[in-house]
Amino acid sequence: MGEVTTALRTSLDRLLDSPGVTGVALVDAVTGLTYGAAGDLGEAGDATEICELAALIAERLGAAGAGGELESVVTTSAKRHQVLFSVVRPTGDPLLLAAGLDRERVNVALALRSLGDHAKEVLA
Description:
This protein is α+β, with helices and mostly antiparallel strands and 124 residues long. The chain has helices spanning 2-15, 41-44, 47-63, 108-119; strands at residues 21-28, 34-39, 72-76, 80-87, 95-102. A hairpin with a 3-residue loop joins strand 3 and strand 4 (80-87).
């Protein structure tokens, strides 16, 4: 189990190398359990709130007729962006990769692409 934790931590730390990424967390999408975090956890967001937000958005999208599962969510404030990516596991409930981005130091399009590319590596 220790090797898995170390590999997860290394993967999350690598996400902090992306310009403007200030904190990341891998969270169970149903329970809110945080599996790992790196950087400023406050910037990544509160695990329970992340899960509730993702569930609410997925529910509303379904009610509006959108098919499929929630892929990502971006919220923006005056100083930062918060990004949530759904990470599908082979078994079990999906996970959420949450990232806080410093708005002054980040190119959102590049950050989204980078985080999206690395989201699947987190579980590798």
